[in-house]
Design goal:
It contains 6 helices and 2 strands; from the N terminus they run ααααββαα. By secondary structure, it is mainly α. The protein has a two-stranded antiparallel ribbon. A hairpin with a 5-residue loop joins β1 and β2. The protein is flat.
Length: 170
């Protein structure tokens, strides 16, 4: 019994307690100060703005019978609104200075440290590296064949070019 109690004795702390450690409780009940009431009024939505927004939504689409010209005009107006919204969004995106022109549906790829990775750039670099390796392989193959064979190929190519340029007389 002595050993287990000896190992878990409370040590004397060098920390000093300043002030109370309990948090103050919020006052419950209907009693409010005038300051709290002012804050609640600021938070409440403006009823006129809400009504304007509802009216705007109600007038967006008309019911009843419509002619093809009316439907076409409505579709053109909707397309113009969307184009203006996209242009405004693109302008805001350019002004942010991020340097990446990615649309809302594009996936953002990041590396292990959290930096944005340009996948298209990586693909281009891989393609260039592969083309460079192919070029070097052709070069090694060319140099391994020998100088006499290369000279013979160049001579044959020159002769064929000359024959192609000559007029054919019969």
């Amino acid at each position: 019994m002595g050993k287990s109690l000896a190992t878990f004795q409370k040590s004397k702390s060098t920390w000093a307690t300043v002030g109370s450690t309990s948090l103050p409780l919020a006052q419950a009940g209907p009693s409010r100060t005038s300051e709290n009431e002012n804050m609640d009024e600021d938070i409440k939505p403006d009823m006129e703005a809400v009504q304007k927004e509802e009216k705007k939504q109600l007038t967006k689409r008309k019911g009843g019978l419509r002619t093809a010209a009316q439907i076409r005009q409505e579709a053109e107006e909707l397309a113009a609104e969307r184009a203006a919204a996209l242009a405004a969004e693109a302008e805001r995106g350019e002004g942010s200075g991020s340097g990446h022109a990615q649309g809302p549906g594009e996936t953002v790829h990041r590396d292990s440290s959290g930096r944005i990775v340009d996948v298209e750039k990586l693909k281009r670099e891989a393609k260039e590296k592969e083309e460079e390796e192919k070029r070097k392989a052709r070069e090694r193959e060319e140099w391994s064949k020998g100088m006499v064979q290369r000279q013979g190929r160049e001579d044959r190519a020159r002769q064929e070019r000359e024959m192609g340029e000559r007029d054919v007389a019969r």
